[in-house]
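Bit of a strange request maybe. I'm writing a small parser for C-alpha coordinate strings and I need a real example to test against, not something I typed by hand. Could someone generate the C-alpha coordinates for this chain?
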Amino acid sequence: MTTNNSFNVAIIGTGFGGLGMAINLKKAGEDDFVVLERAEGVGGTWRDNHYPGAACDVQSHLYSFSFEPKHDWTRKFAEQPEIRGYLNDCADKYDVRKHIRFSTELQSAEFDEASGLWTLQTSGGVVVARSVVMANGPLSQPATPDLPGLENFKGTTFHSAQWNHDHNLQGERVAVIGTGASAIQFVPKVVPQASEFYLFQRSGAWVTPKADRKFFAFEQWLFKNLPIYDRAYRYWIYWLNEVRALGFTTAQIALKAFGLLGKYAINKAIKDKEKRRKVTPQWNIGCKRILLSNDYFPALAQDHVDIIDTGIERVEENAIITKDGRRVEVDTIIFGTGFKATDFLSPVDFKGLNGIDLNEAWKNGVTAYKGINLSGFPNLHLIYGPNTNLSHNSAVFMLECQMQHIKQAVLAMKANGWKYIDARKDAELAWDEAVQKKLKNSVWASGCSSWYIDSSGKIVNMWPGFTFTYKRKTKKPNFNDYDVVTA
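Reply from user aminoacidic:
Good idea to test on real output. This should exercise your parser:
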Protein backbone atom coordinates (compact mmCIF):
# COMPACT_ATOMS: atom_id res chain seq x y z
CA MET A 1 0.00 0.00 0.00
CA THR A 2 1.93 3.00 -1.22
CA THR A 3 -0.55 5.60 -2.47
CA ASN A 4 -2.19 8.08 -0.15
CA ASN A 5 -5.56 6.48 -0.91
CA SER A 6 -4.58 3.02 0.34
CA PHE A 7 -4.56 2.16 4.02
CA ASN A 8 -4.49 -0.78 6.37
CA VAL A 9 -7.65 0.48 8.12
CA ALA A 10 -10.43 2.86 7.14
CA ILE A 11 -12.63 4.15 9.98
CA ILE A 12 -16.03 5.68 9.22
CA GLY A 13 -17.22 8.41 11.60
CA THR A 14 -15.72 10.62 14.30
CA GLY A 15 -18.05 10.16 17.24
CA PHE A 16 -17.03 8.24 20.35
CA GLY A 17 -16.65 5.04 18.32
CA GLY A 18 -14.56 6.42 15.46
CA LEU A 19 -12.31 8.64 17.54
CA GLY A 20 -11.84 5.94 20.15
CA MET A 21 -10.91 3.41 17.47
CA ALA A 22 -8.38 5.79 15.92
CA ILE A 23 -6.83 6.56 19.31
CA ASN A 24 -6.58 2.87 20.19
CA LEU A 25 -4.78 2.13 16.92
CA LYS A 26 -2.34 4.99 17.44
CA LYS A 27 -1.61 3.89 21.00
CA ALA A 28 -0.86 0.41 19.64
CA GLY A 29 1.61 1.82 17.11
CA GLU A 30 -0.65 1.43 14.08
CA ASP A 31 -0.56 4.65 12.07
CA ASP A 32 -1.64 3.36 8.66
CA PHE A 33 -5.30 4.36 8.81
CA VAL A 34 -7.70 6.98 7.57
CA VAL A 35 -10.88 8.34 9.15
CA LEU A 36 -13.70 9.35 6.80
CA GLU A 37 -16.12 11.93 8.15
CA ARG A 38 -19.08 13.26 6.17
CA ALA A 39 -19.30 16.47 8.23
CA GLU A 40 -16.82 19.30 8.72
CA GLY A 41 -15.99 18.52 12.34
CA VAL A 42 -15.68 15.69 14.84
CA GLY A 43 -18.27 14.70 17.41
CA GLY A 44 -20.83 12.39 15.76
CA THR A 45 -24.22 12.64 17.41
CA TRP A 46 -22.84 15.27 19.81
CA ARG A 47 -21.91 17.43 16.85
CA ASP A 48 -25.23 17.01 15.06
CA ASN A 49 -27.64 17.22 18.00
CA HIS A 50 -27.29 20.80 19.17
CA TYR A 51 -30.94 21.47 19.93
CA PRO A 52 -31.76 23.52 23.05
CA GLY A 53 -31.34 21.45 26.19
CA ALA A 54 -29.31 18.66 24.54
CA ALA A 55 -27.58 16.66 27.26
CA CYS A 56 -26.55 13.13 28.18
CA ASP A 57 -28.58 10.84 30.44
CA VAL A 58 -25.48 8.91 31.54
CA GLN A 59 -23.22 10.41 34.18
CA SER A 60 -20.34 12.48 32.80
CA HIS A 61 -17.48 10.52 34.38
CA LEU A 62 -18.80 7.28 32.87
CA TYR A 63 -19.84 8.71 29.51
CA SER A 64 -16.22 9.30 28.58
CA PHE A 65 -13.20 7.20 27.61
CA SER A 66 -11.70 5.14 30.42
CA PHE A 67 -8.23 6.04 29.14
CA GLU A 68 -8.94 9.79 29.02
CA PRO A 69 -10.64 10.99 32.21
CA LYS A 70 -11.88 14.58 32.32
CA HIS A 71 -11.54 16.05 35.79
CA ASP A 72 -13.43 19.29 35.32
CA TRP A 73 -16.86 18.18 34.16
CA THR A 74 -19.18 21.01 35.14
CA ARG A 75 -22.25 18.84 35.78
CA LYS A 76 -23.06 15.30 36.86
CA PHE A 77 -24.80 14.87 33.49
CA ALA A 78 -22.91 16.78 30.82
CA GLU A 79 -24.62 18.95 28.24
CA GLN A 80 -23.95 18.79 24.50
CA PRO A 81 -21.36 21.60 24.17
CA GLU A 82 -19.18 20.10 26.89
CA ILE A 83 -19.32 16.58 25.44
CA ARG A 84 -18.50 17.85 21.97
CA GLY A 85 -15.65 19.86 23.47
CA TYR A 86 -14.33 16.73 25.17
CA LEU A 87 -14.29 14.84 21.86
CA ASN A 88 -12.51 17.71 20.14
CA ASP A 89 -9.94 17.76 22.94
CA CYS A 90 -9.37 14.01 22.49
CA ALA A 91 -8.86 14.45 18.74
CA ASP A 92 -6.27 17.14 19.42
CA LYS A 93 -4.44 15.42 22.26
CA TYR A 94 -3.95 12.18 20.35
CA ASP A 95 -3.17 13.91 17.04
CA VAL A 96 -6.01 12.21 15.21
CA ARG A 97 -7.02 15.10 12.95
CA LYS A 98 -4.19 14.46 10.48
CA HIS A 99 -5.85 11.13 9.72
CA ILE A 100 -9.33 12.57 9.17
CA ARG A 101 -10.80 13.46 5.79
CA PHE A 102 -13.66 15.82 6.54
CA SER A 103 -16.62 16.39 4.21
CA THR A 104 -16.04 12.91 2.84
CA GLU A 105 -19.09 10.65 2.84
CA LEU A 106 -18.93 6.91 2.26
CA GLN A 107 -21.26 5.97 -0.60
CA SER A 108 -20.50 2.31 -1.34
CA ALA A 109 -18.06 -0.42 -0.39
CA GLU A 110 -17.06 -3.56 -2.27
CA PHE A 111 -14.78 -6.38 -1.15
CA ASP A 112 -12.33 -8.03 -3.55
CA GLU A 113 -11.59 -11.63 -2.58
CA ALA A 114 -8.45 -11.90 -4.71
CA SER A 115 -6.67 -9.01 -3.01
CA GLY A 116 -8.50 -9.11 0.32
CA LEU A 117 -9.14 -5.37 0.06
CA TRP A 118 -12.17 -3.11 0.32
CA THR A 119 -12.74 -0.46 -2.32
CA LEU A 120 -14.64 2.48 -0.85
CA GLN A 121 -16.41 4.94 -3.09
CA THR A 122 -16.63 8.26 -1.27
CA SER A 123 -17.73 11.78 -2.12
CA GLY A 124 -14.02 12.62 -2.20
CA GLY A 125 -12.85 9.78 -4.43
CA VAL A 126 -11.81 6.15 -4.05
CA VAL A 127 -10.17 4.81 -0.89
CA VAL A 128 -8.77 1.28 -0.60
CA ALA A 129 -8.37 -0.44 2.77
CA ARG A 130 -7.56 -3.87 4.16
CA SER A 131 -10.05 -3.45 7.02
CA VAL A 132 -13.06 -1.19 7.43
CA VAL A 133 -14.45 -0.09 10.79
CA MET A 134 -17.99 1.28 10.63
CA ALA A 135 -18.43 3.71 13.52
CA ASN A 136 -21.28 5.71 12.02
CA GLY A 137 -23.58 4.82 14.91
CA PRO A 138 -27.29 3.96 15.00
CA LEU A 139 -28.33 7.54 15.84
CA SER A 140 -26.96 9.19 12.72
CA GLN A 141 -29.93 9.16 10.33
CA PRO A 142 -32.86 11.33 11.42
CA ALA A 143 -36.28 9.70 10.96
CA THR A 144 -39.11 11.92 9.74
CA PRO A 145 -42.64 10.51 9.41
CA ASP A 146 -44.22 10.40 5.97
CA LEU A 147 -47.18 12.67 6.63
CA PRO A 148 -49.60 13.29 3.75
CA GLY A 149 -49.46 16.91 2.62
CA LEU A 150 -46.30 17.80 4.53
CA GLU A 151 -44.75 19.09 1.31
CA ASN A 152 -47.53 21.69 1.12
CA PHE A 153 -46.87 23.18 4.55
CA LYS A 154 -45.95 26.87 4.20
CA GLY A 155 -44.45 27.28 7.64
CA THR A 156 -41.08 26.13 8.98
CA THR A 157 -40.18 22.49 9.60
CA PHE A 158 -37.05 20.86 10.96
CA HIS A 159 -35.88 17.76 12.85
CA SER A 160 -34.36 18.04 16.30
CA ALA A 161 -31.07 16.70 14.88
CA GLN A 162 -31.09 19.50 12.30
CA TRP A 163 -32.14 22.34 14.57
CA ASN A 164 -32.74 25.68 12.86
CA HIS A 165 -31.21 28.17 15.28
CA ASP A 166 -31.86 31.02 12.86
CA HIS A 167 -35.61 30.59 13.17
CA ASN A 168 -37.23 32.62 15.95
CA LEU A 169 -39.95 30.67 17.75
CA GLN A 170 -40.99 33.58 19.95
CA GLY A 171 -44.75 34.08 19.85
CA GLU A 172 -45.30 31.31 17.29
CA ARG A 173 -47.79 28.47 17.25
CA VAL A 174 -45.46 25.49 17.53
CA ALA A 175 -46.19 21.81 16.97
CA VAL A 176 -43.82 19.14 18.18
CA ILE A 177 -44.32 15.64 16.80
CA GLY A 178 -42.85 12.86 18.91
CA THR A 179 -41.94 12.31 22.56
CA GLY A 180 -38.55 10.63 22.34
CA ALA A 181 -35.39 11.39 24.29
CA SER A 182 -34.64 14.55 22.30
CA ALA A 183 -38.17 15.97 22.64
CA ILE A 184 -38.08 15.46 26.40
CA GLN A 185 -35.08 17.79 26.47
CA PHE A 186 -36.04 20.52 24.01
CA VAL A 187 -39.76 20.81 24.76
CA PRO A 188 -39.17 22.65 28.08
CA LYS A 189 -36.98 25.15 26.19
CA VAL A 190 -39.54 25.77 23.44
CA VAL A 191 -42.72 25.98 25.52
CA PRO A 192 -41.88 29.39 27.09
CA GLN A 193 -41.28 30.89 23.62
CA ALA A 194 -44.46 29.66 21.96
CA SER A 195 -47.79 31.48 22.12
CA GLU A 196 -49.51 28.15 21.52
CA PHE A 197 -47.78 24.79 21.88
CA TYR A 198 -49.11 21.47 20.56
CA LEU A 199 -47.48 18.16 21.43
CA PHE A 200 -48.47 15.32 19.09
CA GLN A 201 -47.76 11.95 20.65
CA ARG A 202 -48.68 8.33 20.18
CA SER A 203 -48.36 7.56 23.87
CA GLY A 204 -46.89 9.01 27.03
CA ALA A 205 -43.27 8.27 27.93
CA TRP A 206 -41.77 7.05 31.17
CA VAL A 207 -39.92 10.09 32.47
CA THR A 208 -38.23 9.95 35.86
CA PRO A 209 -36.35 12.63 37.84
CA LYS A 210 -32.76 13.38 36.84
CA ALA A 211 -30.25 13.52 39.69
CA ASP A 212 -28.32 16.32 38.04
CA ARG A 213 -26.48 19.30 39.48
CA LYS A 214 -23.28 21.29 39.03
CA PHE A 215 -20.13 19.88 40.55
CA PHE A 216 -18.68 21.88 43.42
CA ALA A 217 -15.19 23.31 43.06
CA PHE A 218 -13.83 21.05 45.80
CA GLU A 219 -15.17 17.99 43.94
CA GLN A 220 -13.36 19.02 40.77
CA TRP A 221 -10.22 19.57 42.84
CA LEU A 222 -10.47 16.04 44.19
CA PHE A 223 -11.02 14.59 40.72
CA LYS A 224 -7.91 16.36 39.45
CA ASN A 225 -5.53 15.93 42.37
CA LEU A 226 -6.58 12.52 43.70
CA PRO A 227 -6.72 10.12 40.75
CA ILE A 228 -7.84 7.33 43.05
CA TYR A 229 -10.90 9.41 43.98
CA ASP A 230 -11.69 10.01 40.31
CA ARG A 231 -11.40 6.29 39.52
CA ALA A 232 -13.38 5.28 42.59
CA TYR A 233 -16.17 7.70 41.61
CA ARG A 234 -16.31 6.23 38.10
CA TYR A 235 -16.40 2.67 39.39
CA TRP A 236 -19.11 3.55 41.90
CA ILE A 237 -21.28 4.99 39.12
CA TYR A 238 -20.57 1.97 36.92
CA TRP A 239 -21.68 -0.60 39.49
CA LEU A 240 -24.64 1.53 40.55
CA ASN A 241 -25.82 1.48 36.95
CA GLU A 242 -24.79 -2.10 36.27
CA VAL A 243 -27.10 -3.64 38.81
CA ARG A 244 -30.03 -2.09 36.96
CA ALA A 245 -29.55 -4.65 34.18
CA LEU A 246 -31.53 -7.07 36.33
CA GLY A 247 -34.57 -4.81 36.15
CA PHE A 248 -34.73 -5.15 32.37
CA THR A 249 -34.28 -8.91 32.37
CA THR A 250 -34.79 -11.18 35.39
CA ALA A 251 -36.06 -8.78 38.07
CA GLN A 252 -38.57 -6.60 36.25
CA ILE A 253 -40.51 -6.03 39.47
CA ALA A 254 -37.73 -3.63 40.47
CA LEU A 255 -38.42 -1.54 37.35
CA LYS A 256 -42.10 -1.34 38.24
CA ALA A 257 -41.15 0.08 41.61
CA PHE A 258 -38.92 2.59 39.86
CA GLY A 259 -41.91 3.54 37.72
CA LEU A 260 -43.61 4.92 40.81
CA LEU A 261 -41.13 7.80 40.63
CA GLY A 262 -42.34 8.59 37.14
CA LYS A 263 -45.99 8.56 38.20
CA TYR A 264 -45.18 10.72 41.22
CA ALA A 265 -43.46 13.26 38.92
CA ILE A 266 -46.59 13.37 36.74
CA ASN A 267 -48.99 13.81 39.63
CA LYS A 268 -46.83 16.45 41.26
CA ALA A 269 -46.45 18.61 38.14
CA ILE A 270 -49.73 18.15 36.26
CA LYS A 271 -53.05 18.87 37.94
CA ASP A 272 -55.24 18.74 34.84
CA LYS A 273 -56.75 15.22 34.81
CA GLU A 274 -56.96 14.94 31.01
CA LYS A 275 -53.36 16.02 30.53
CA ARG A 276 -52.31 13.65 33.26
CA ARG A 277 -54.10 10.79 31.53
CA LYS A 278 -52.41 11.55 28.21
CA VAL A 279 -48.86 11.72 29.58
CA THR A 280 -49.20 8.58 31.72
CA PRO A 281 -47.63 5.68 29.76
CA GLN A 282 -49.68 2.55 29.17
CA TRP A 283 -46.79 0.21 28.44
CA ASN A 284 -44.38 -1.50 30.83
CA ILE A 285 -41.63 0.74 32.11
CA GLY A 286 -38.38 -0.11 30.34
CA CYS A 287 -40.07 -1.49 27.22
CA LYS A 288 -39.10 1.77 25.57
CA ARG A 289 -36.28 4.03 26.67
CA ILE A 290 -36.67 5.43 30.19
CA LEU A 291 -36.13 9.19 30.02
CA LEU A 292 -34.72 11.58 32.59
CA SER A 293 -35.97 15.12 33.15
CA ASN A 294 -36.92 17.51 35.91
CA ASP A 295 -38.69 20.10 33.75
CA TYR A 296 -40.63 18.14 31.10
CA PHE A 297 -43.87 17.63 33.03
CA PRO A 298 -43.89 21.16 34.50
CA ALA A 299 -43.58 22.48 30.92
CA LEU A 300 -46.54 20.40 29.74
CA ALA A 301 -48.61 21.67 32.66
CA GLN A 302 -48.63 25.21 31.21
CA ASP A 303 -52.04 26.53 30.11
CA HIS A 304 -50.99 27.21 26.50
CA VAL A 305 -49.81 23.61 26.01
CA ASP A 306 -52.14 21.09 24.36
CA ILE A 307 -51.33 17.38 24.17
CA ILE A 308 -52.85 15.60 21.16
CA ASP A 309 -52.87 11.81 20.98
CA THR A 310 -55.53 11.16 18.34
CA GLY A 311 -53.11 10.76 15.44
CA ILE A 312 -52.38 12.90 12.37
CA GLU A 313 -54.49 12.54 9.23
CA ARG A 314 -52.66 15.07 7.03
CA VAL A 315 -50.86 18.39 6.90
CA GLU A 316 -52.20 21.49 5.13
CA GLU A 317 -50.58 24.80 4.24
CA ASN A 318 -50.83 26.19 7.76
CA ALA A 319 -52.37 23.43 9.84
CA ILE A 320 -52.25 19.83 11.02
CA ILE A 321 -55.47 17.83 10.65
CA THR A 322 -55.95 15.09 13.24
CA LYS A 323 -57.64 11.77 12.61
CA ASP A 324 -60.69 12.87 14.58
CA GLY A 325 -61.11 15.90 12.31
CA ARG A 326 -59.58 18.63 14.43
CA ARG A 327 -57.78 21.43 12.59
CA VAL A 328 -54.71 22.73 14.46
CA GLU A 329 -53.19 25.87 12.94
CA VAL A 330 -49.42 26.10 13.44
CA ASP A 331 -46.48 28.18 12.25
CA THR A 332 -43.66 25.71 12.88
CA ILE A 333 -43.42 21.93 13.04
CA ILE A 334 -40.52 20.35 14.92
CA PHE A 335 -39.92 16.63 14.57
CA GLY A 336 -38.75 14.84 17.69
CA THR A 337 -39.17 11.49 15.97
CA GLY A 338 -35.74 10.02 16.55
CA PHE A 339 -33.54 8.08 14.17
CA LYS A 340 -33.47 5.10 11.82
CA ALA A 341 -31.74 3.12 14.52
CA THR A 342 -32.30 -0.35 13.03
CA ASP A 343 -30.74 0.60 9.65
CA PHE A 344 -27.22 -0.03 10.88
CA LEU A 345 -25.22 0.50 7.71
CA SER A 346 -27.69 2.43 5.54
CA PRO A 347 -27.60 4.14 3.15
CA VAL A 348 -24.20 2.71 2.12
CA ASP A 349 -24.29 -0.10 -0.45
CA PHE A 350 -22.08 -2.97 0.79
CA LYS A 351 -21.03 -5.93 -1.32
CA GLY A 352 -19.09 -8.77 0.27
CA LEU A 353 -17.79 -12.15 -0.88
CA ASN A 354 -19.12 -13.25 -4.26
CA GLY A 355 -20.83 -9.88 -4.62
CA ILE A 356 -23.39 -10.61 -1.90
CA ASP A 357 -25.38 -7.51 -1.00
CA LEU A 358 -25.83 -6.56 2.64
CA ASN A 359 -29.61 -6.40 2.25
CA GLU A 360 -29.54 -9.97 0.94
CA ALA A 361 -27.36 -11.11 3.84
CA TRP A 362 -29.75 -9.55 6.32
CA LYS A 363 -33.01 -10.55 4.58
CA ASN A 364 -33.85 -12.91 7.46
CA GLY A 365 -32.94 -10.38 10.13
CA VAL A 366 -30.02 -8.27 11.28
CA THR A 367 -27.26 -10.34 12.90
CA ALA A 368 -23.59 -9.83 13.69
CA TYR A 369 -21.07 -12.03 15.47
CA LYS A 370 -20.57 -10.38 18.89
CA GLY A 371 -22.26 -7.34 17.36
CA ILE A 372 -19.01 -6.71 15.49
CA ASN A 373 -18.52 -8.93 12.42
CA LEU A 374 -20.76 -10.04 9.56
CA SER A 375 -20.29 -13.40 7.86
CA GLY A 376 -19.58 -12.92 4.17
CA PHE A 377 -18.12 -9.45 4.71
CA PRO A 378 -14.47 -10.06 5.57
CA ASN A 379 -12.45 -7.47 7.49
CA LEU A 380 -15.59 -5.39 8.07
CA HIS A 381 -16.02 -4.46 11.72
CA LEU A 382 -18.93 -2.69 13.37
CA ILE A 383 -18.82 -0.44 16.40
CA TYR A 384 -22.21 -0.16 18.13
CA GLY A 385 -23.53 -2.96 15.95
CA PRO A 386 -26.61 -5.15 16.46
CA ASN A 387 -27.60 -5.96 20.06
CA THR A 388 -24.93 -3.84 21.73
CA ASN A 389 -27.05 -0.92 22.95
CA LEU A 390 -27.90 -0.49 26.64
CA SER A 391 -30.69 0.81 28.83
CA HIS A 392 -28.85 0.56 32.13
CA ASN A 393 -25.26 1.72 31.68
CA SER A 394 -22.84 3.66 29.48
CA ALA A 395 -22.70 2.81 25.79
CA VAL A 396 -19.10 4.07 25.76
CA PHE A 397 -18.15 1.04 27.88
CA MET A 398 -19.53 -1.24 25.16
CA LEU A 399 -17.76 0.75 22.45
CA GLU A 400 -14.44 0.34 24.21
CA CYS A 401 -14.97 -3.44 24.36
CA GLN A 402 -15.51 -3.44 20.61
CA MET A 403 -12.51 -1.19 19.95
CA GLN A 404 -10.23 -3.59 21.84
CA HIS A 405 -11.59 -6.60 19.97
CA ILE A 406 -11.20 -4.91 16.58
CA LYS A 407 -7.73 -3.57 17.38
CA GLN A 408 -6.49 -7.06 18.25
CA ALA A 409 -7.97 -8.50 15.07
CA VAL A 410 -6.39 -5.80 12.90
CA LEU A 411 -2.97 -6.17 14.56
CA ALA A 412 -3.10 -9.97 14.31
CA MET A 413 -3.88 -9.76 10.60
CA LYS A 414 -0.94 -7.47 9.99
CA ALA A 415 1.48 -9.46 12.15
CA ASN A 416 0.55 -12.77 10.50
CA GLY A 417 0.22 -11.49 6.97
CA TRP A 418 -3.38 -12.65 6.68
CA LYS A 419 -5.34 -11.55 3.64
CA TYR A 420 -8.67 -11.53 5.41
CA ILE A 421 -10.73 -12.96 8.22
CA ASP A 422 -14.41 -13.76 7.83
CA ALA A 423 -16.74 -14.61 10.70
CA ARG A 424 -18.16 -18.09 10.17
CA LYS A 425 -21.91 -18.18 9.60
CA ASP A 426 -22.47 -20.84 12.24
CA ALA A 427 -20.65 -18.72 14.82
CA GLU A 428 -22.69 -15.66 13.88
CA LEU A 429 -25.99 -17.54 14.10
CA ALA A 430 -25.05 -19.22 17.37
CA TRP A 431 -24.24 -15.83 18.90
CA ASP A 432 -27.51 -14.36 17.66
CA GLU A 433 -29.53 -17.35 18.88
CA ALA A 434 -28.05 -17.03 22.38
CA VAL A 435 -28.75 -13.30 22.52
CA GLN A 436 -32.31 -13.63 21.21
CA LYS A 437 -33.04 -16.42 23.68
CA LYS A 438 -32.16 -14.11 26.57
CA LEU A 439 -34.15 -11.26 25.05
CA LYS A 440 -37.37 -13.30 24.94
CA ASN A 441 -37.98 -12.79 28.65
CA SER A 442 -36.77 -9.19 28.77
CA VAL A 443 -38.96 -6.12 29.25
CA TRP A 444 -38.24 -5.10 25.63
CA ALA A 445 -40.27 -8.13 24.50
CA SER A 446 -43.32 -7.12 26.54
CA GLY A 447 -45.32 -5.78 23.61
CA CYS A 448 -44.54 -2.14 22.85
CA SER A 449 -43.05 -0.77 19.63
CA SER A 450 -39.72 1.03 19.90
CA TRP A 451 -36.54 1.79 18.01
CA TYR A 452 -35.05 -1.29 19.66
CA ILE A 453 -37.17 -3.49 17.38
CA ASP A 454 -37.04 -3.84 13.58
CA SER A 455 -40.02 -4.10 11.23
CA SER A 456 -40.17 -7.88 11.64
CA GLY A 457 -40.49 -7.62 15.41
CA LYS A 458 -36.94 -8.74 16.19
CA ILE A 459 -35.08 -6.94 18.97
CA VAL A 460 -31.93 -5.88 17.15
CA ASN A 461 -30.51 -3.14 19.35
CA MET A 462 -30.42 -4.23 22.99
CA TRP A 463 -27.85 -6.24 24.94
CA PRO A 464 -29.69 -8.56 27.38
CA GLY A 465 -27.33 -8.62 30.31
CA PHE A 466 -24.40 -7.17 32.18
CA THR A 467 -21.74 -5.15 30.40
CA PHE A 468 -18.95 -7.01 32.20
CA THR A 469 -20.28 -10.19 30.57
CA TYR A 470 -19.98 -8.59 27.15
CA LYS A 471 -16.47 -7.41 28.00
CA ARG A 472 -15.45 -10.96 28.93
CA LYS A 473 -16.92 -12.38 25.72
CA THR A 474 -15.14 -9.80 23.53
CA LYS A 475 -11.87 -9.52 25.43
CA LYS A 476 -9.92 -11.47 22.81
CA PRO A 477 -10.83 -12.55 19.26
CA ASN A 478 -11.38 -16.28 18.91
CA PHE A 479 -10.04 -16.91 15.44
CA ASN A 480 -11.52 -20.41 15.49
CA ASP A 481 -14.81 -18.61 14.83
CA TYR A 482 -13.40 -17.08 11.63
CA ASP A 483 -12.28 -18.34 8.28
CA VAL A 484 -8.69 -17.09 8.14
CA VAL A 485 -7.29 -16.68 4.62
CA THR A 486 -3.56 -16.17 4.19
CA ALA A 487 -1.91 -14.28 1.38
